[in-house]
């Protein structure tokens, strides 16, 4: 059966990977910009790439986009277990392409992190016209200085640290806070600095438990409590990351977690103090986005819409030098942006005496 032709621009929108504050703001911005400037028809792909595999989608109207920018989650759903190139052990990518063609899409806007945009890059090789929007609380996407969702996550963790501090002060305890972030330490670093942590342990620099214990002991001696922030991907020197579970068919099959409790046991071997560990988990990625993330996601979405209108496909929107730009999807695919030694916030933390559990981090002697 021959496909019917269409006159209006038809654009699909997909949100992939973990949910993230700001997704609805991005959906709203992409859709409204395209509707108003190109009279486009917008098709929402339901539940991420799973919607392509199972052929589930729905039209998104202008009214559907009204009043959603403050809502957490995503109105079209998401899924982090539906890699079209390995779904339940089989390659479904040709089915994705067939449904893309059946929907008569002129372009597909994919809103996601490194796993989602990596899949988008592979699909672009099959002929899909893809534009990527950088979303992840982990802030670990290559080529961009920031992703939306990160500011909200940092704000949530900072609030948790503030609350745990009063308990630590009252009971003279060491309070450990485990954050998300996978193999990058951005959330732990920024929330740790914002929350006044004494020690921050991140995946980029394996920690020596004796150094961490020494920092905690010194802090307990002067203030009678201590705050330690540890990223879920952190590990001790010559040790392994803590894996909570493995999920087959996911772009990121290893689910990290448990390092907070491990650190509690490790510290207990070196010091006589009451230690408590708190894992925030999915609290970090839920709820309403901050005003910053609402604005940032809106800006990114509108920019992505303009890339679609100008037929600049297989690109990813990025922020560089506080300005929006775009790079080839290939540049962000299958890569992780880690915290570099010259990062401003990291350097600030080192200069202020925050312990990272390693001798390999030094404050740079000169301002560049």
TrEMBL record:
For this protein, the record's InterPro entries field holds: ATP_PFK (IPR022953), ATP_PFK_prok-type (IPR012003), Phosphofructokinase_CS (IPR015912), Phosphofructokinase_dom (IPR000023), Phosphofructokinase_III (IPR012829), PKF_sf (IPR035966)
Q: Which organism is it from?
A: Paraglaciecola mesophila KMM 241
Q: PANTHER family attached here?
A: ATP-DEPENDENT 6-PHOSPHOFRUCTOKINASE 3 (PTHR13697:SF52), PHOSPHOFRUCTOKINASE (PTHR13697)
What is the purpose of this protein? Catalyzes the phosphorylation of D-fructose 6-phosphate to fructose 1,6-bisphosphate by ATP, the first committing step of glycolysis.
| Pfam families membership | PFK
Cellular component GO terms held in the UniProt record: 6-phosphofructokinase complex
The identity of this protein, by name, is ATP-dependent 6-phosphofructokinase
PROSITE patterns reported for this sequence: PHOSPHOFRUCTOKINASE
Q: Where does ATP bind?
A: 18, 81-82, 113-116
Q: What is its EC number?
A: 2.7.1.11
Subcellular location(s): the record lists: Cytoplasm
Source organism's superkingdom?
Bacteria
Known catalysed reaction(s)?
Answer: beta-D-fructose 6-phosphate + ATP = beta-D-fructose 1,6-bisphosphate + ADP + H(+)
Residues annotated as the enzyme's active site: 138
Which residue intervals define the domain Phosphofructokinase in the entry? 10-307
Chain sites annotated for binding Mg(2+) = 114
> Which keywords describe this protein according to UniProt?
ATP-binding, Cytoplasm, Glycolysis, Kinase, Magnesium, Metal-binding, Nucleotide-binding, Transferase
Which cofactor does this sequence's record say it needs?
A: Mg(2+)
Q: Where is this site: Important for substrate specificity?
A: 115
Partners and quaternary state? Homodimer or homotetramer.
Residue numbers binding substrate:
136-138, 173, 180-182, 232, 276, 282-285
Q: In which pathway does it act?
A: Carbohydrate degradation; glycolysis; D-glyceraldehyde 3-phosphate and glycerone phosphate from D-glucose: step 3/4
Molecular-function GO terms, alphabetical: 6-phosphofructokinase activity; AMP binding; ATP binding; diphosphate-fructose-6-phosphate 1-phosphotransferase activity; fructose-6-phosphate binding; identical protein binding; metal ion binding; monosaccharide binding
């Amino acid at each position: 059966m021959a496909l019917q032709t269409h006159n209006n621009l038809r654009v699909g929108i997909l949100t992939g990977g973990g949910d993230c504050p700001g997704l609805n703001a991005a959906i709203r911005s992409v859709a409204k910009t395209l509707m108003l400037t190109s009279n486009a028809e917008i098709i929402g792909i339901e539940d991420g790439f799973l919607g392509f595999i199972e052929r589930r989608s729905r039209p998104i109207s202008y009214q559907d986009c009204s009043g959603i920018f403050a809502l957490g989650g995503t109105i079209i759903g998401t899924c982090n277990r539906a890699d079209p190139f390995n779904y339940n052990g089989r390659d479904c990518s040709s089915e994705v392409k067939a449904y893309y063609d059946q929907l008569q899409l002129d372009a597909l806007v994919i809103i996601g992190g490194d796993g989602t945009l990596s899949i988008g890059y592979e699909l672009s090789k099959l002929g899909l016209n893809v534009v990527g929007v950088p979303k992840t609380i982990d802030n670990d996407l290559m080529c961009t200085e920031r992703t939306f969702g990160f500011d909200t996550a940092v704000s949530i963790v900072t609030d948790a640290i503030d609350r745990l501090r009063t308990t630590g002060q009252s009971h003279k305890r060491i309070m450990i806070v485990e954050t998300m972030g996978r193999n990058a330490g951005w959330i732990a670093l920024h929330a740790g600095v914002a929350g006044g942590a004494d020690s921050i342990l991140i995946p980029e620099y394996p920690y020596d438990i004796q150094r961490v214990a020494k920092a905690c002991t010194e802090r307990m001696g002067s203030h009678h409590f201590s705050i330690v922030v540890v990223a879920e991907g952190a590990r001790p020197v010559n040790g392994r990351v803590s894996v909570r579970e493995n999920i087959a068919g996911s772009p990121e099959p290893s689910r990290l977690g448990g390092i907070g409790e491990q650190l509690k046991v490790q510290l207990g071997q070196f010091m006589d103090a009451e230690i408590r560990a708190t894992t925030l988990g999915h609290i970090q990625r839920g709820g309403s986005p901050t005003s910053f993330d609402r604005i940032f996601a809106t800006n990114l979405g509108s920019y992505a819409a303009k890339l679609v209108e100008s037929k600049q496909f297989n690109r990813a929107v990025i922020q560089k030098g506080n300005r929006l730009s775009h790079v080839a999807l290939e540049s962000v695919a299958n890569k992780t942006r880690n915290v570099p030694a010259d990062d401003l916030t990291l350097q600030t933390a080192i200069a202020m005496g925050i312990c990272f559990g390693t001798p390999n981090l030094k404050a740079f002697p000169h301002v560049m």
